[in-house]
Amino acid sequence: MTPTELRAKQAPFKNKYKDDPGSGLVTMRAVATLQVETVSCRLKFEVAPENAGLHPLSGGDGTYACSAEMLLQALVGCAGVTFGAVATSMEVPVRGGTITAEGDVDFRGTLGVDRSVPIGFQAIRMTFD
C-alpha cells in the first residue's frame, strides 16, 4: 500500500471523527475462560492473530487482527494462567471463572485528527469473575 492509498483509505474515517468526535471512541474487550485442570485459559478470537493490521475504525477491512485487541487478549491470557498457577500452587480450590479486559481507544488520536487526544488506550479495566 502506498502512502496515497493509505491516506485515501483513512480519509473517510478522519472526516467522520472530525464531524462526530464521539464516533471515534470505542471500547475493545477480551475475555479468557479459566481451564482449571490444565492451568490454562481459553481465549475467543474474532480474527485469528496470525497477521496484525489496521482496525476497521482506522481503515482496516477486518481481515487482520488489531494489535490493540491482541494486547487485551495477552493481558487476560497472562492473568488467567497466573491466577490458575497460583491457585494450584497454594491449593486454593477454583472451579472456573472468566477474566475480562476492556480498553478505551479514541481513534481521533490514532489517526491524528485531534492532537489533544492520546494515541492508543486511554484506560484499561480488568474484572475477575
Descriptive terms for the model:
four-stranded antiparallel beta sheet; 28% strand; alpha+beta; elongated; 129 residues; two-stranded parallel ribbon
Can you characterise this structure?
- It is a single chain.
- The protein is elongated.
- Strands 2-1-5-6 form a four-stranded antiparallel beta sheet. Strands 3-4 form a two-stranded parallel ribbon.
- The chain has helices at 3-19, 67-89, 107-110, and strands at residues 25-35, 40-43, 52-53, 65-66, 98-106, 121-128.
- It has one domain (3-128).
- The chain has three helices and six strands; from the N terminus they run H-E-E-E-E-H-E-H-E.
Short recap of the structure:
With 129 residues, the chain is α+β, with helices and mostly antiparallel strands. It contains three helices and six strands.
Topology (SSEs and partners):
Blueprint (H helix, E strand, L loop, with lengths): L2 H17 L5 E11 L4 E4 L8 E2 L11 E2 H23 L8 E9 H4 L10 E8 L1
Parallel strand pairs: 3-4
Antiparallel strand pairs: 1-2, 1-5, 5-6
Mean pLDDT: 93
Number of strands: 6
**Count of alpha/pi helices:** 3
> How do the strands of the widest beta sheet line up side by side?
2-1-5-6
Low-confidence stretches: none
Instruction: State which percent range the strand residues make up.
Output: 25-35%
H-E string: HEEEEHEHE
The amount of helix comes to 25-40%
Q: Major beta sheet, specifics?
A: 4 strands, antiparallel
Structural class, judged by helices and strands? alpha+beta
Radius of gyration: 18 Å
Based on CA inertia axes, which overall geometry fits?
elongated
The count of domains is: 1
Q: Kindly, what is the distance between the CA atoms of the first and last residues, rounded to a whole number of angstroms? A: 43 Å
